[in-house]
Specification:
Blueprint (H helix, E strand, L loop, with lengths): L5 H17 L2 H8 L8 H40 L12
Length: 92
């Protein structure tokens, strides 16, 4: 492995930045989009069937996560109120 000191790292960063700024990466990115723009309503509406297809899975994950967060909140709140989650008599 080659060790670079700070000056050489700065030179490498400057070279990489120069290459990125002088290349035509933005024009290539814009050409990949069907309308030649970074955002297009056509792309949004073309993607809606896939989004709707996966919506039940997404909503079930959201509901379960919300339930987990809510139950954790109630457990922590009950524990901070001075009551034990498991009464001491359960261990005897």
């Amino acid at each position: 492995m080659i060790k670079l000191d700070i000056i050489e790292k700065g030179k490498v960063a400057m070279i990489v930045t120069t290459v990125m700024l002088t290349s035509n990466w933005y024009q290539e990115l814009v050409l990949e989009d069907p309308d030649g723009q970074l955002f297009s309503w056509r792309s949004v509406f073309d993607g809606l069937p896939r989004i709707i297809e996966k919506l039940p899975i997404t909503l079930s994950i959201d509901v379960r996560a919300f339930g987990l967060i809510l139950s954790s909140h109630f457990a922590i709140d009950q524990n901070q109120s001075g009551e034990d989650l498991i009464p001491p008599q359960a261990f005897s």
